[in-house]
Design goal:
The chain is built from six helices and eleven strands. It is of the alpha+beta class. The two termini are about 25 Å apart.
């Protein structure tokens, strides 16, 4: 699912539902990781373990020895030298995407359940222009939960932004324009793209200051997935 939203240079490993838990959930943690979840509830520990197992499998596919994945500044994962990547998890789904830093400057992925945002969340994360556009999209394709899709896109934007800037990016500091959905098959899946216009000075990549990030999105299997990739220039 996530892999379809990313360039071929990116390795993505996903775990779906109970099958994914069985495949990835029993992998041992490194001592440094174990210390982080020693007192965690079962759900938190399971997601922590599965998503790191996905990340280590992606490392191996890139020819990099498996290593601990520890949180760094603001909780962002610390990747082995020469790699950049992103992780996400929600109920029934975990994924990690890694790429050689020579191939991409940064990337961000996010997955969410395909259901409406809790009451009050949209007003806290969306700009007035975004809310207006969501209304038009909902009229065109009411079966897509555009509010959740916007939230996920903002999460992916932040995950791609932070490694390049080491700064916080507020929800109000990126204006995201989602495309209208296109049906893609009998399962009712949808795909599209989005552009995030940065409302604060963007990172300098390849000698140029970026004014926007571009991303892709998909709705499948009861999930919303988004991905942002930042090229070197």
């Amino acid at each position: 699912m996530i892999e379809e939203l990313l360039p071929e240079s990116v390795v993505a490993v996903e775990a779906f539902g109970e099958e994914g838990v069985r495949e990835f959930g029993n992998a041992p943690l490194y001592p440094q990781e174990e210390a982080l979840v020693a007192r965690a509830v079962a759900k938190r520990r399971r997601e922590f373990t599965v998503v790191r197992s996905c990340a280590r499998r992606a490392m191996e596919k890139l020819g990099v020895p498996a290593q601990p994945v520890l949180p760094g500044e603001r909780g962002a994962p610390q990747w082995p030298d020469g790699l950049t990547g992103s992780m996400t998890h929600c109920e029934g789904y975990c994924a990690a995407a890694l790429v050689r830093a020579a191939d991409l400057a940064s990337l961000g992925i996010d997955a969410e359940p395909h259901e409406p945002l809790p009451e009050g969340v949209l007003s806290a994360v969306a700009l007035p222009a975004e809310v207006e556009r969501l209304g038009r999209l909902a009229a065109e394709r009411p079966e897509v939960h555009w509010d959740r899709l916007l939230f996920s896109a903002k999460e992916s934007v932040y995950k791609a932004w932070f490694p390049l800037t080491r700064k916080w990016l507020d929800f109000s500091e990126a204006d995201i324009d989602l495309t209208s959905a296109t049906a893609t098959g009998p399962a009712g899946g949808s795909d599209g793209v989005f552009r995030a216009r940065l409302l604060v000075p963007g990172p300098v990549v390849g000698g140029h200051r970026l004014g926007h990030f571009d991303g892709r999105w998909s709705v499948r299997r009861g999930l919303v997935a988004t991905a942002v990739t930042v090229h070197h220039g």
